[in-house]
Amino acid sequence: MKTPRDTLFARHQNAAPKLDAIRREVLSAEFVREGRRAAVPKFRVADTATLPLLIWRELIFPCRRIWAGLAAIWILIFVVNFSQRDKSEMMASKTPLPSPDMILVFRQQERLLAELTDQKETPIAEPPKRFLPQPRSERRIEILMT
Amino acid sequence: MPEVSAPEQLPVPQARAGEPAAWDALFRRYQLPLYVYVFELVHNEQTSLDIVQETFVSAVKHIGGLRDNEKFGSWLFGIAHQKVIQLWRKHSGKEILFDEIPESPDEFENSPDDLLIRHEQETEFMNLLNQLPLPQRSVLLLHFVEDFSLEEISRITETQLGTVKSRLHYAKKSLRKLLETKNENAA
């Protein structure tokens, strides 16, 4: 009497040569690779051609969902930021300039405040001396003279 | 054809040590059962061969993750099962409906006969297997192909033991019904 296992196996017996080939292929590929890995130093610096591929395969692809999420968050931040900036610029452009009368009133108030607080007018700063390049030997004499 | 017996001595420690001959023996032992299991779920020869190949590659790479050497078989089937699920999700873009059957474990405590199918009907049962939904088919195949215990099937499919029992019960019930209908139509 045939068991379900026998029935199923008999049904798929023709796949056996293909499975043998797969087994051999996997073993040769995996163990040749293992052998190569053992021969090559572990921390080999990736060359410039394979580096992007290596970064993609080792760093980005395994956590692609996380990276996509982060990218989406950044895009959202940029969009929000950009839309806010547009609004503030528009507000600034819409605000009217103060009239000359208002400016005059502000100046008078400033002057009055200065009088009340007894503030002297700020002294006029001396203009900076012009630096003229001169030979080093002359500069030294100048220092000695002073 | 390899015989399946409980105290089967597999060269798993040697495979862990990286002996190609040990891996060859292990893959030789499991290649056909794995293929049969995968094929009966995906129904495509090339896809099944690809999944078996990917399972072998993953097994060599991740043998360090196997805790118990005696559970190598269920561990290997677990890898293949996950690959089938991944493929299924990729193609359908949906989750498999694992909870389509209500769980009622008391039903299975009645008698051991409830879980057995008569030998003369087995061949015909297998022909009707394809009419079952994927989760039920998967459980039934694991039970028939490798004679895995319910606990092992639960680990392979990453589902609750009660769910496995329920799926196996309903799978057999559905098969019986299909067979009865077939016989009635033939008569």
Report on the structure:
The complex is a heterodimer of chains A (146) and B (187). Chain A is mainly α and 146 residues long. Among the domains of chain A are: 14-44; 46-108, no CATH class. Chain A has six helices and no strands. Chain A has helices at 4-11, 16-39, 51-60, 64-94, 100-116, 136-145. With 187 residues, chain B is mainly alpha-helical. In chain B, 65% of the residues lie in helices and 0% in strands. Chain B has eight helices and no strands. Chain B has helices at residues 12-16, 20-42, 45-61, 72-92, 119-128, 134-145, 150-157, 161-186. Chain B is elongated and about 60 Å long. Residues 1-5 and 95-116 of chain B have low confidence and may be disordered. Chain A binds chain B through residues 1-9, 11-13, 15-16, 18-20, 22-23, 25-27, 29-31, 34, and chain B through 1, 4, 18, 20, 23-24, 27-28, 31-33, 35-36, 39-40, 45, 48-49, 52-53, 56-57, 60-61, 119-120, 122-123, 125-126, 141, 144-145, 147.
- The CATH architecture of the largest domain in chain B is Orthogonal Bundle
How many extended strands of chain B? 0
Number of separate helices of chain B: 8
Percent in strands of chain A: under 5%
Rounded to an integer in angstroms, the radius of gyration calculated over CA atoms of chain A is 41 Å
Structure in a nutshell:
Chain A has 146 residues and is an all-alpha fold. Chain A is 68% helix and 0% strand. The longest helix of chain B has 26 residues, at 161-186.
